[in-house]
Each structure stands twice: as structure tokens, then as C-alpha cells.
Amino acid sequence: MTYAKIFYHGNCLDGATSAALATLFVKERYPSASIEYVPLLHGPNFAYDPEWFTADLHMVLDFPYPGRTQGDLIWIDHHSSSFASSELRNTYEELKASEPLYWNPQAPSNAGLMLNILRKDFNLDPGDQWSAIIDWVDMIDSGSFTTPEIAVELLDPAVAFAQLLSSNPELSPDFIKDLSSNPDFDALAKEHTWSRLINRVRQDNWTLLEEVKEIIKIEGGVAYVDLTHRTVDHYNPFMPYYIAPDVKYAVALLRQSNKIKISVGENPWSQLKFHQKIDISALCEQYGGGGHIGVGAVSLLLEEHTRAEEIALKIFNEIKNFLLLHATSSLKHIP
Ligand SMILES: [Mn+2]
Question: Ligand 1 centre from 161 Cα, in Å?
């Protein structure tokens, strides 16, 4: 074995952490192998090219199943949307008993799933320090922050690194190499190359937060944020709940470099009862978007700004009306 290629979710801390674990695996198993890192990004036109699979060993991490490949393949993923077609799903079902293909959509992070697999199936223990790393990646990748402060202030290095990588996938190969040799977010954040980058991310974040404070509109427990007067590629959807903890839902209208995005979310700290929750994915599907019950989005072309604003306001009003009917009703009315 002389050549390993590691494919991973390229603008994501979970993808990069998975690739750092993969680096340790390859170095331990095949000390003389050369490693190539290939960050992958989701997009409407994404498809695997068979010509990418030219190495002896391929690892595909935190990204959809590529199907049968040349050379060997280790695939690990935790997304529910891991199969682009039913044919690929069938291929996975057929091969999973005999090949190292791992899929667990319940896992909060891919890196956590992978650490368990390395320990159990590959008899490799990368060391105790990785447990602390996985605690952070689990929290960040599943969006289950204990407080809005952790999600918004970016004071913890892990959260700041996640924000940095989400808009700068080109930094990921260096980050992966550094993390694999020094699995300690706090220590890495103090190294000059990284501290400089992280400080920039934090400064931009505070500037954006002040801007959101200025323009946020709150009515009937719902926040509305229109940032389309400029391009924002790194919006933090938790900001409205940090600014106004009583807000139950937030709708944001965003201009990104390649599209207009309407982001819709439920305040994860508001503790709404089930009957008080609106299904955000169904709401977004009405306008061509999608998501989960608590978070969703609708994407439109840059030139559809007027239509996007109409849709965002409709969603804002629909949630307000829903809350008026359900969120204030007390449980005693339910038999
Ligand atoms: Mn992930």
C-alpha cells in the first residue's frame, strides 16, 4: 500500500476531525503510504467521478456513499441522506456485511462514530485526548449547544474552528494534519497561524451580531432578520435566540454569494411542547425548500430577491399565526 486518498465533508469540523482520525489510521497501518486529502462540498451538481478513485485505499467520511470503486474503500457516514439513489442503497445493503461500510444516521457526529469503529473493529486506540475532541464535535455537528452563548460568542476554540472551516474549506488539509498530531483545540487555537485566523472569524462574528441586533424585528414570538443588503456567507442561525431568549422561532433572509437563502428555525432553548411546534420542513416544502421539524431552508436564485422576500414574510406570518393559536393555549383545554 503506497497511496491513500481521504475524501471528507470539506467545510465542516466533523469532516475534518474524521479525516484527522483517518490520518492516524493510515499512518499506523501503512507507515510508508502517501496521503492525499480531498475536501468535498455539497451542491446541486455534486456527483462522484470514478476517475477520483485512483489510490490503493480510499476513505470517504461524513459524505454520501460513493458506490463501488476501484481499489479499496472504507466508507463512514451519519447523514440520513447518504444515498443519492435507490441503486446505491441496494449496493450498500449487498456489500455491507463483507466490506468496511458504516452508516449510522443516529450518531451525533461522524467523528464520534468513527472513533468507536477504530477502537472496536480496527483495534486502534488513538488516545484519551480524542474523547474531549468528540464531545465538542458531537455538540457542534448536532447543533445541541447547552446555551446560546456557546453557539454565538465563539469563545470556545472548537466552535470558532467550526465557523472558520465552514467558510474556508481550503484550510482543512492543514487543520487535519495539525489536529492529527496535536488533538487539542485549545492548544491549536494558540498557535500563531490559527490564532490569527480565529481572531478574524471572531471579529467578523461580533460585527455581524451587532448588525443583527440593529435590524432584528420581533413580533408575536417570531424574529425576522433581513440581511440582504450585503453578502453574508457565514450567518449564525442562533443569533436571534441569543439577542432575545423569549423568541420561539426565527426567519432570516440572506444573500449568499451564489443564492438567496431563507433560513427558518425553532429556538432549541425555548422548550416548546410538541403541540406548540410547527413542522418547519413542511412549511419550507410549500415553497420548494425542506429540512427537519425544527430547522429548514428555502433557496432561491440571486435574481429572485423580490419573490424571496415575499416567501420569507409569508413564512414569518404563518408562524406568528400558528403561535397565536397554539403556543398560548394552555394544556387544560386538551382532553
Ligand atoms: Mn457530520
Answer: 15
- Tell how far the Cα of 15 is from the centroid of ligand 1, in angstroms: 6
Distance CA 234, CA 215 (A): 17
Ligand 1 centroid to Cα of residue 16, in Å, is 10
Rounded to whole angstroms, the Cα distance separating 296 from 47 reads 23
Rounded to the nearest angstrom, the distance between the alpha carbon of 334 and the centre of ligand 1 is 39
Kindly give the distance from the C-alpha atom of residue 18 to the centroid of ligand 1, in angstroms, as a whole number: 9
Distance from Cα 10 to the centre of ligand 1, integer Å:
10
Mean pLDDT for all residues in the chain: 94
pLDDT of 167-223, one tens digit each?
899 999 999 999 999 999 999 999 999 999 999 999 999 999 999 999 999 999 999
For the chain, the residue count is: 335
Per-residue pLDDT of 70-93, as tens digits, reads: 999 999 999 888 999 999 999 999
Integer Cα distance of 13 and 189 in angstroms: 14
Asked whether the whole model's pTM tops 0.85, one would answer yes
Is-contact 232 273, C-beta < 8 A? no
- Give the domains, in start order, of the chain with CATH numbers: 3-197 (3.90.1640), 217-332 (3.10.310.30)
331: pLDDT strictly greater than 70: no
Determine the distance separating the centroid of ligand 1 and the alpha carbon of 113, expressed in angstroms.
10
What distance in angstroms lies between residue 13's CA and the mean position of ligand 1's atoms? 8
Distance between CA atoms of residues 133 and 58, nearest Å: 24
The pLDDT of residue 64 is 94
Q: 319 alpha carbon to ligand 1 midpoint, in Å? A: 29
Look at strands 34-40 and 57-61 and give their pairing. unpaired
